[in-house]
Amino acid sequence: EPAKPAYRRILLKLSGEALMGNLSFGIDPDMIQRMAREVTEISRLGVQVAMVIGGGNLFRGAGLAQAGMDRVTADQMGMLATVMNALAMQDALEHHGAFCRVMSAIKINQVCEDYIRRRAVRHLEKGRVVVFAAGTGNPYFTTDSAASLRASEINADLMLKATKVDGVYDSDPMHNPDALRYDSLTYDEALSSRLEVMDQTALVLCRDNSIPLRVFDVYQPDNLKRVVMGESVGTLVKR
Ligand code: UDP
Questions:
Q1: Is 135 labeled as ligand-binding?
Q2: Which residues contact 50 (CB under 8 A, 6 or more apart)?
Q3: Is 141 annotated as belonging to a binding site?
Q4: What ipTM score was computed for the predicted complex, to two decimals?
Q5: What are the binding positions for ATP in this chain (predicted)?
Q6: pTM above the 0.95 mark?
Q7: pLDDT band at 3 (very low <50, low <70, confident <90, very high)
Q8: Which residues have C-beta atoms less than 6 Å from ligand 1?
Q9: Which domains does the chain have, with CATH numbers?
Q10: How far apart are CA 7 and CA 41, in angstroms?
Q11: Bridge partners of residue 226, in order along the sequence
């Protein structure tokens, strides 16, 4: 008998950069196809999969504001960037035979569905991958916060944050060769030592709603499946 997934419903947060591959802007077709293939595979195992995708591969509000743009307008561009990434992911998922719905926090309902929580849950129950787009719909937030919010709303058993490194370190492993990786830590530890796991808003939301978070290296093939099957890949952040 094939092994069963360890979770019923998960929320996967992918940064925009995860779709960029080796490019410096935009979406790398090979990269998004690979991600979509892995997501389709876990969806077929019976896990209900919701996703939040960032927009940093296209536009970031803070960056645009630094270049002189009004911050709120800049954030709106950032949120629209996440919609484009979500549409690309929907397309890639369908390419692999998965069923998908994009739901946006900003109304653009000729392009995708509006976010309605009960409909999102229904899609998940039917085995459709739901991609939550446009972040929280509000400026001054990040897609990490959007992911924490949606994970709380849909009662996800686990939030997964896909990164370039294989977990949470006590200092930046790209710069410090002696950096130590945590197997697990608490939200309070992450908050007080200001470890670069997620922004503080996102951490607090996950903590207060008791959503465990696994940070893992998404560039490592099959890591997503391993996490879903219950393996301790990367770092677990919990209450
Ligand atoms: N954004 C926003 N509100 C949200 C989520 C995102 O205004 O609730 C904007 C913000 O400008 C952000 C951009 O969308 O810089 C892209 O999201 P993010 O930087 O979180 O993407 P990632 O770093 O994950 O690629």
A1: no
A2: 9, 10, 11, 12, 120, 124, 129, 130, 131, 132, 150, 151, 154, 156
A3: yes
A4: 0.98
A5: 13-16, 56, 60, 163, 169, 172
A6: yes
A7: confident
A8: 15-17, 54-56, 60-62, 75, 78-79, 81-82, 135-136, 138-139, 141-143, 146
A9: 9-238 (3.40.1160.10)
A10: 14
A11: none
